[in-house]
Amino acid sequence: MSYAKVIDNNITKLATRLPATAQRLDDDGWVLALRTADTATQEACGWFQVDDAAVRPDDTATTTSNRGVELVGDVPTVIWTVRSKSDDELAGETAVAAEKSTRDAAKAAHGANKDFLALDPPTTAQALQQVDSLTRQVNGLIRLVVDAGLAD
Predict the structure, then answer these.
(1) 78 and 67 in contact (C-beta within 8 Å)?
(2) pLDDT value at position 7?
(3) Count of structural domains, the chain
(4) Separation of alpha carbons 142 and 35, rounded Å
(5) Residues with Cβ < 8 Å from 66, sequence gap 6 or more?
(6) Which of 22, 47, 109, 111 is the 20 to 30 Å CA partner of 65?
(7) Given 52, 84, 116, which residue is the final one in a domain?
(8) Residues β-bridged to residue 84
């Protein structure tokens, strides 16, 4: 649950928890236990519960949504605004996907290597296939090192 402080039809503050005390807007009196006060007293101090019923739109490959709170019919209400993802967000998602792909390939290679080591004894064909597989894996590791700038 979240709250909005509303003064003169403007949201002046958002909070996830009510303050312990607040001054009433109607008679300037102080409420010392605002968190346990009834809704009418909280609202008399300018604090309203935010209507958070709006469902966040799903992200797409190129869009995401920003959460905002606006007054709708005098009720602070969550509003979702769909926007294009920034270049940094797109680059970050691409990097995460590439890292996952690399991790998945490493797990698959590890599994294949464990399977080879379990052969007792491997055939010549299996050994040749393993040499080919290991050569490709090492080339991939070298490429990662070079791309990361770790090799001179």
Answers:
(1) yes
(2) 96
(3) 2
(4) 60
(5) 80, 81, 83
(6) 47
(7) 84
(8) 63
